[in-house]
Design brief:
By secondary structure, this protein is α/β, with parallel strands linked by helices. The protein has one domain: Rossmann fold (3-Layer(aba) Sandwich), CATH 3.40.50.12780. It has six helices and seven strands, in the order αββαβαβαβαββα. It has a five-stranded parallel beta sheet with strand order 4-3-5-6-7. The longest helix is centred in the first third of the chain and has 17 residues.
């Protein structure tokens, strides 16, 4: 006997939407644009600014050819850039690979290769371990350096691209699309 709950329930817009946090940020920016979304030291970022910065990141990544199925790795502390990556990367259809900041170089190298990382966004605070990991890894990702001014550590820059400069070239109105599946 067929289960009645399995009958006539193919995915349709009426009964299915991929589980994604992207719509939460979009709605918060629409309904509460001037409410503070991020507090990082003295910096206060509203939902409207957070959404625009995430879209700028997505736009900048897309302009570099990053899209569906690509991997963007990030080794960042709990910073605004990490929050923006959690939204901006999936807005391109790419996969965010968040790297634990306590791992050693060989583990990171393995992960970068296994993920086939195309872009690495990294806090300069973790630059020395990442430099060792990149020497061991086969992949040669686009390197984007983020410097957290709150941590007080200059750290090691890995590439020539600065995060703020990178996203500044992006479109704050980037037309992202919802994922088909989670």
């Amino acid at each position: 006997m067929a289960n009645p709950f399995d009958t006539g329930l193919a995915k349709t817009p009426a009964n299915y939407q991929p589980l994604t946090p992207l719509v939460f940020l979009q709605r918060a920016a629409s309904v509460h644009p001037d409410h503070v979304a991020i507090i990082h030291g003295e910096v206060r970022t509203t939902y409207a600014e957070f959404y625009a910065r995430s879209r700028r990141l997505a736009s900048s990544l897309a302009s570099r050819g990053i899209g569906f199925g690509d991997t963007v790795s990030a080794m960042l502390a709990n910073t605004p850039a990490m929050l923006e990556a959690h939204y901006g990367v999936p807005m391109t259809g790419a996969v965010l690979h968040a790297i634990n900041t306590r791992l050693d170089a060989s583990a990171i190298a393995f992960m970068l290769d296994h993920a086939e990382t195309k872009v690495l966004i990294s806090d300069t605070e973790f630059g020395s371990v990442l430099a060792d990991a990149l020497k061991q890894a086969k992949v040669k990702p686009l390197l984007i350096d983020y410097r957290d001014l709150e941590c007080g550590v200059e750290g090691t820059r890995l590439g020539t691209l600065d995060y703020e400069t990178f996203i500044a070239g992006g479109d704050p109105e980037f037309a992202w699309t919802m994922p088909d599946e989670e």
